[in-house]
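Hi both,

Apologies for the delay on this - the queue was longer than expected. I finally got the adenosine-5'-triphosphate-bound model through. Below you'll find the protein sequence and the ligand SMILES exactly as submitted, and right after that the structure tokens for the full complex including the ligand.
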Amino acid sequence: MRLLPRSLFGRTLLVLVAGLMLAEIASQVVNFFDRGSGVYRLGAQQTALRIAQSARILNRLTPVQRDAVVEEMNGPNFSVILSAAPVTVRKGFAEHDRYEQALGTLIQRYLRSQWSTSVQITSLGRASRPKNYEAVDTSPLEQWIARHFYFVLPGTYSIVSQIKLEDGTTAVFYARIPQEPLSRIESLLPRLLLTLTIFAALGAVAVRAITRSLARLARAAEQVGANPEGAPLPEHGPSEVRSVIHAFNRMRLDLRSYVLERARMLGAISHDLQTPITRLRLRAEMIPDAGSRAKFVRDLDEMEAMAGSALEFFKTLGNEPQRQPLDVGALVGSLCEDWIETGRDVSVQGVARGPYNSHPQALRRCIDNLIENALRYGGRARISIEDDVGSLRIAVRDEGPGIPVDDLERVFEPFFRLEQSRNRDSGGTGLGLAIARNIARWHGGDIHLRNVPGGKGLIAELVLPRTANGRGPA
Ligand SMILES: Nc1ncnc2c1ncn2[C@@H]1O[C@H](COP(=O)(O)OP(=O)(O)OP(=O)(O)O)[C@@H](O)[C@H]1O
Ligand SMILES: [Mg+2]
């Protein structure tokens, strides 16, 4: 199982949300300590003052009066008993010593007398009035909290303060400091959820905007090989993405002009080759041996044919810089008529739904190459046109021997011809399919070859993509 999301969107969102959670938790922890110690300081001060004042009042009263007053003083979080001698109280945690000392000093200050005072933080149970100040064992969790968070002393812990009054009586006070309730954590959850939702939503919008631009860029990058003529990408999005799109558009233009430039150069070479070939042909006449002469001339014919097809191919692309809507059905129809006129067996079925944006001459050459192959190697050509939302497909089927599966891709290589067609001396140069595929890809499409099952021929299919407007790439 993958824990890390694959997409940039998922990862960025994960980092955002995880970061927010950590920040929120950290701020809550800081807040908790801050608020807790604040509340404790205030509570401790109040408690110290109350103990000191009570001690001072009790000091002034007669034993009888004291009993009545003590009765009135006692409440759920504060009570006092008077004892002839100090009571023994279990010693609390060493960690609490500094707080006990601080409380003692505070009480002493409020007493304004040098009465002996002791303070002990210890567990006395939850009863509102402890029995004889006997220590009560608490749970390990409560002990742990009391030990490490002095300001969240669990309810079982009390402050026991013993003050020796002037007449020798010991007043034993016990008090609980109001604690910072831990249950605050519950109110934290909805708040965290709220911030998280807002953050995630805003983050999603921001990240989505970036990933959308990136996705568009990736799609265009895929297309650039297949369709070098596509419209430039609109330069939207954040400035970084915009500059990438800008560079990308420029690269696409450069690439396109580079391809055209190369085509023009190769075209020129093919063209210029014709002159030396003609010269060679004249010189061949001078070869005395008739057999050698014939072979020489045949090689020259082949060279001329190659240069000729190359020239024609490069011309088709260079001559039509702009695409135009083309009725592909009519184009195929007229090609068929031409072949039928020369007595070949060609038929067509199916129609195109609408015009297709293309280079008419190039597309004509592409389809004609497929028909020519079908006739040359398979005797007849059955053409079918299929057209739907996704693509326009023109399949040419023949009844020849087909092509061995291993060679189905190799026949697209320039000048590659199968052995048997070589022997048949059929006169091809091996450029036809290379040219046809080049033209198909220039239109954003492709050509696929497959054998008719049972060795009953070959199907060569030209697939041209239909875009949203139904016309094919602009
Ligand atoms: N319909 C087909 N049936 C059987 N083999 C085919 C068919 N089409 C092409 N081939 C094989 O693929 C090879 C390459 O075809 P391609 O059209 O590229 O060249 P070519 O027909 O030999 O020459 P060119 O088309 O340049 O005149 C052919 O030589 C032939 O062996
Ligand atoms: Mg051919």
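Main takeaway for now: Residues 181 and 238 are 47 Å apart (CA to CA).

I'll put the files on the shared drive as well.

H.
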